[in-house]
Amino acid sequence: MNSAVTPSPPPVLRLDGLRKAYGVGTPLEVEVLHGIDLTLQGGEFAALIGPSGSGKSTLLNLIGLLDTPTRGEIHVQGRPTVDLNDTERTALRGRSLGFVFQFHHLINAFSVIDNVMMPALLGGAKPDAATRERALELLDAVGLAMHAHKRPTELSGGQQQRVAIARALMIRPPILLADEPTGNLDSRAADEVFALFRRFNQSFGCAVLLVTHDPRIAARCDRVLEMLDGRLVADRAQTAQA
Ligand code: ADP
Ligand code: MG
């Protein structure tokens, strides 16, 4: 292919020499990521595996712009992020990154649909009929439109996690990050939640980076990244199992 005719888009995510230490400047300073290089293309569906304490959550929090590296650079859609100020960082996060945690962090003072609308409202969208309609479409897509006006705690754990996925997708992020989203679900609820990530990956084309301990889930991803002691020690493409 002639790249002068069809320039390829930048990867959605590129990490260069990413290092992270906690407790910097104290006697307890400890480096937990020792130089991570990684490229994720648009629409890729990757699992991130590795033992507890290997640095998976630390890495995801850096990519999600929830924390800053001690060294290295994170490019989101070709844009360097390390030197952004807090306002710019929040704006980029609101445009480009969806995040689903193991514990969903839904706010029980708000209804389910208000929780789903929240990222869009924080990003400056108006709480108008169009925003509400989009939130309802997403709730419908995760099978929960009939629960839109309930409080999060009225739903099961699996349902709450599906609400969290709808919320993460509200901004149509090109990158969806998930930190053990099925970690506290039974296997049936875990399968349902995983199926949603797959469906949205295919329909919206968002790249997915999903931390999991579950080998069954990792086997269904297109690429498996493996961490050990703060380093990426394996990166393999695979044919996803059905
Ligand atoms: P994983 O998600 O793979 O279980 P983490 O990223 O949570 O791993 O942790 C990686 C290492 O960093 C662990 O040794 C952990 O104890 C340490 N760690 C994580 N968060 C902090 C923190 N806020 N302060 C100090 N050490 C931390
Ligand atoms: Mg973790």
TrEMBL record:
GO terms for molecular function: ATP binding; ATP hydrolysis activity; transmembrane transporter activity. Its EC number is 3.6.3.-. Residues 13-242 form the ABC transporter domain. Keywords: Antibiotic resistance, ATP-binding, Cell membrane, Hydrolase, Lipoprotein, Membrane, Nucleotide-binding, Transmembrane, Transmembrane helix, Transport. The keyword Hydrolase applies. GO terms for cellular component: membrane protein complex; plasma membrane. CDD domains: ABC_MJ0796_LolCDE_FtsE. InterPro entries: AAA+_ATPase, ABC_transporter-like_ATP-bd, ABC_transporter-like_CS, ABC_transpr_LolD-like, MacB-like_ATP-bd, P-loop_NTPase. Coiled coil: none annotated. PROSITE patterns: ABC_TRANSPORTER_1, ABC_TRANSPORTER_2. It comes from the Bacteria. GO terms for biological process: response to antibiotic. SUPFAM superfamilies: P-loop containing nucleoside triphosphate hydrolases (SSF52540). Belongs to the ABC transporter superfamily. Macrolide exporter (TC 3.A.1.122) family. This is ABC transporter ATP-binding protein. It comes from Thiomonas arsenitoxydans (strain DSM 22701 / CIP 110005 / 3As). The gene is lolD2.
